[in-house]
Amino acid sequence: MSDPAPSNLRTRSEALAAPLPDLQARAERLARTLLLGGHGRRQAGTGDEFWQYRPAQVGDSAASIDWRRSGQSDAQFVREKEWQAAQSVHLWIDGSAAMQFASTTDLKPKADRAGVLAMALSILLMKGGERVALAALGTPPRIGALQLSRIADGLIAGDDADYGAPDATGFLPHSAAVFMSDFLGPLAPVEAAIAISVDLGIKGVLFQILDPAEEVFPYQGRTIFTSMGGAVSHETLRAGDLRDRYRDRLNERKHHLSDLAKHAGWQFETHHTDASAQSALLWLYAALEGRR
């Protein structure tokens, strides 16, 4: 098969990269509001004591590899210290089709709010000396401008699945985690990822992002409900009759998520896309600060 025409490749590449500057710029402005408010801090690590070796991963620098330990086997190993785990935060940001929903043209999709919050939170954490990783990339937590660019790339990549499923594979023990999603899909994967995290001594946050229409269910009369991925569709002639049942189910789900977080020693919060992004960022930052 021949290579794509250079003009087509350039057009597709530019379209893919277009959201990056906007996402980063909005995230930096959002983070700056908290930094100017005195919420930023730089905190020293808990110590330089050797903690463990871990297998080297894609993206690890040559300087981070312990060549003496690696020479004892066919694999390469990174020597991690205690503070590197204690000051590491893993972000799982739901990039599924469901997160592309926006009920009106005046609101941005849930994925947009999640992306801006994730980037702004990463900026704040890194300015405080913490390392951050995006779970979708499968790389260890790092700090710096290059890592922020990697996170931005990962956030705009998206996913074809109808609903997202968190993956705690590769999380560092005794680190922290943020799961950001609408949590409207199956909850079994969420429960499994939290169970893995708890076994690793990880404290974290479940942050639910909903469009306001998903909260109030304003629909009346004949309505066709179709999942963003197109896999599920339901037509009703009396949408208003479903409102109470829908709200009850949503409240049951919220209570389940809240109980799940409580039993794990995590925190849970619901945020709506018509609410202030600044207040959401402040809550997230404070929740992670409170884990110490």
UniProtKB/TrEMBL annotation:
Pfam families: DUF58
Superkingdom of source: Bacteria
Domain DUF58: 52-251
PANTHER family: BLL2464 PROTEIN
Name of the protein described by the UniProt record: Putative conserved membrane protein
Taxon lineage: Bacteria, Pseudomonadati, Pseudomonadota, Alphaproteobacteria, Rhodobacterales
